[in-house]
Amino acid sequence: MAENKKKCRQYSQDYLKFGFIASPTSESIPMCLLCKKTFSNDSMKPSKMKDHLERIYCDKKSKELDYFKALKAKFHSRPRLETFFKSPANPDLQGQKALYNIALYIAKKGKPYCIGEEVILPALEEVLRNVMKTNPDPVLKSVPLSASTVKRQIDEMAHNVEKTLLLELQCSKFSLQLDEATFGSSSVLMAYVRYFSRVSSVLPTSFCSQNI
Domain boundary residue among 35, 54, 77? Predict the structure, then answer.
C-alpha cells in the first residue's frame, strides 16, 4: 500500500492578521513578525497561529490588520545578507559584496583571517596604484579586511547557510547519517543529511557538528 504523502500547507495572506508571514526562505514555513521565530509547516494553521499570538503576545491580539502590515513592511525594508548579492551598482553595497566574496574565498582555502589585511589589501593597492593608475584609497576603504571583519562575515554566512538548511529540512524528507571524527583529544559528532532541494537538487550536506 502506497504511503500517504504528508500535506504541505502554503502561506495565505489571511495569516497576516495573526502576525505571521511566509518565511523569506520558504513559502511553506510561517514566521512570526513579533518574535521573528520560524515554525514548522505543521504550524501553518490559523488555530495554531492565533494561539501563538494570544498566548505569547496577548497585548497584541486586538491589533488591527494595519499594525501587522506595518510590521511586515518594516521587516522587508531591512537590509539582509542576500541584498548584498542582488543589489545594483551601489558603491557601498558593491564593496560589501566584494568583502563577503573575499571572506568566502579565505574560508574555502582554509587561510588565517589576517591574510586579508596583511596580503590581499596590499596586493590590491599595488594593482590599483601601478597597473590601473588610480587612487586606491576609495576602493580600500569600501573593502575593510581586518581579521575581526573577515571572521564576522564568515560566521554570518555560515549561520545563514545553516538556518536555510534547517528551514528546508523542516518541510522535506531526508536521510540522515551519523559519523565520528577525532581532532586531537576531542571527538566530534558529524551529522550528514541528503535531501531534495527545490533550489539545488539532491545535496549531501554536513549541517551540524557537536562535541561529545
Answer: 77
Average pLDDT over residues 150-159: 90
Residues linked to residue 23 through DSSP beta bridges, in sequence order: 26
105-140: per-residue pLDDT in tens?
Answer: 999 998 899 998 899 999 989 988 888 888 888 888
- What is the identity of the amino acid at 166? L
- Residues constituting the chain: 212
Which amino acid would we find at residue 31? M
Residue 2 covered by a domain: no
Count of C-beta atoms within a 10 Å radius of residue 18: 21
Same structural domain, 166 and 177: no
CA distance 94 to 138: 12
69 and 49 in a common domain: yes
Its domain, for residue 143, covers 80-171
- Any idea which of 6-10, 16-20, 186-190 has the lowest mean pLDDT? 6-10
- Looking at the domain assignment, is residue 6 inside a domain? no
C-alpha 184/C-alpha 69 separation (Å) is: 53
Look at residues 191, 190, 189, 198 and name the one whose alpha carbon lies nearest to residue 167.
Answer: 198
- What does the mean pLDDT of the chain come to? 79
* 60 HSE (CA, 13 A, CB side): 22
